[in-house]
Amino acid sequence: AVVSTQSTGNDSCFAKANCYIQGMGVEKDYSKAIPILEDTCSKGHHQSCHNLGVLYYHGHGVDKNMDKFKYYNNQAKIFRGQSNPFQDKPPTPDDMTKPPVGAL
Length: 104
Known about the structure:
Layout: H1 8-22, H2 30-42, H3 46-58, H4 66-80
Helix pairs in contact: 1-2, 2-3, 3-4
């Protein structure tokens, strides 16, 4: 079984990435958010995986890529232990900072 390795460090990095995504306190810059999300996703942070999937779905800071969207969506599911964070619907722009469905 895969166990999430969420920690205060991963949560802090996730929050920093969201600041870059939304332009909160810093200039909006997807290129700074993406490596942070990739790192924390690789460490089991499901919300980082979720947001990476959304970025690839919408093409924010990256080329639109449905294969990468599906990959990161699946990683979010695995790390969260859910059947489908997007409930079989593609993400909307408002989903960018929302945790997957059922997250605390």
